[in-house]
Design goal:
Strand order of the largest sheet: 1-7-6-4-5
Helix content: 25-40%
Number of domains: 2
CATH class of the largest domain: Alpha Beta
Largest sheet: 5 strands, mixed
Bound molecules: coenzyme A
Number of helices: 8
CATH topology of the largest domain: Peroxisomal Thiolase, Chain A, domain 1
Number of strands: 13
Length: about 325
């Protein structure tokens, strides 16, 4: 069973940070950021909470889908930067939009979140015949979790939200979800500090680089090495299940982390970069919102059209990776 995307929506915060703006915090310059990452600017939430961005994106998606919110049976939200540890952002969206008959929960697979969420929602739709529509929303404000003295990291991320309303269909579909927890130390943000005197049976907490709680740490080079392998692997693993190849795909919509990662993945898949939707130049890395924001923009400017085959491919902290192949 596949899915049909009925409508997509997005929200980008008003405030925009250019590369030059970062010169106020760190020793950097526009040329370095452009050539090493492909980023020129990114949006930054100032007054907008994550749930608010999620709500705006969801409203947009519901309006484009032209459905009654009362027919939504499931709300999932992906975010690594929720305003509340609990309740879930999905529960807030559900309340704010008056979606009365829905289950609601958050899902965290870091930057792979949208791919994980789409596949999870599809499974709900497949197994619960009474569920008509699922609302899936990604909303992120990584700007609040940056170390603005770490010039290799703070320049990469941006904020934003995007959402989709989906229903079951008999269109082509495949997915692959993967995880390698041994890479936890390469990309993480702590939510609370550990008590060193407390001994647990696992040594999992050992060996993490020092970083204050609520600040993102990344080993950029290691994450880069992981990403250039994970993107092609995730696509191929999903594609092989249904006997398609990269030549069958009209558009690749990858996680927007670094233009060089996208170019290397394209080379590995023997696909022209022209078949990749790229928005990193004006969005930066918006974590789980990056893939749906890119897809939403491609729908709005008419690049992606009905009947085309799309490969959504993500990777992120965990380390997680995954791909969903759909027909739009
Ligand atoms: N401005 C200027 N110089 C910078 C800089 C910045 N913003 N950030 C780092 N540098 C410097 C480094 O200090 C280093 O200087 P040195 O040679 O004097 O030590 C030099 O640039 C090269 O650093 P390096 O880390 O090797 O650069 P890089 O080409 O690997 O690019 C990243 C760094 C972070 C852009 C790149 O590794 C990357 O994109 N990794 C993946 C990160 C990612 O995708 N994370 C999210 C995953 S969901």
């Amino acid at each position: 069973m596949g899915i049909n995307i009925l409508g997509m929506g997005s929200y980008l915060p008003e405030q925009i940070l250019t590369n030059d703006d970062f010169k106020k915090f760190v020793d950097t310059n526009d040329e370095w950021i452009r050539t090493r990452t492909g980023i020129q600017s990114r949006h930054m939430s100032g007054w907008e909470p994550v749930w608010y961005m999620a709500k705006q994106a969801a409203l947009d998606a519901i309006s484009k889908a032209g459905i009654d919110p009362g027919d939504i049976g499931l709300v999932i939200c992906t975010t690594v930067t929720p305003d509340f540890l609990t309740p879930s952002t999905a529960s807030i969206i559900q309340y704010e939009l008056g979606i009365e008959n829905a289950a609601a929960f958050d899902l965290n697979a870091a930057c792979s979140g949208f791919v994980y969420m789409m596949d999870t929602a599809r499974r709900f739709l497949e197994t619960d015949g009474s569920m008509k529509y699922a609302l899936i929303v990604s909303s992120e404000a990584l700007s609040r979790f940056m170390d603005y003295e770490d010039r290799g990291t703070c320049i990469l991320f941006g904020d934003g939200a995007a959402a989709a309303v989906i229903e079951r269909s008999d269109k082509m579909y495949s997915s692959f979800l993967g995880s390698d927890g041994s890479g936890a130390r390469k990309l993480f943000a702590r939510n609370c500090s550990v008590a060193p005197q407390v001994k647990v049976e696992s040594d999992f907490d050992d060996g993490f680089p020092e970083k204050p709680v609520h600040q993102l740490y990344q080993d950029g080079r290691e994450v880069y090495k992981f990403a250039v392998k994970a993107l092609p692997k995730a696509f191929r693993s999903a594609a092989e299940k249904i006997g398609v190849t990269s030549a069958d795909i009209d558009w690749f919509i990858p996680h927007q982390a670094n233009i060089r990662i996208i170019e290397t993945a394209a080379k590995s898949l023997e696909v022209s970069t022209d078949k990749f939707i790229v928005t990193i130049d004006h969005h930066g890395n918006t974590s789980s919102a990056s893939i749906p924001l890119a897809l939403c923009e491609a729908l709005e400017n008419g690049r992606v059209t009905r009947g085309q085959k799309l490969a959504l491919v993500g990777f992120g902290a965990g380390l997680t990776y995954g791909s969903v192949i759909i027909e739009y």
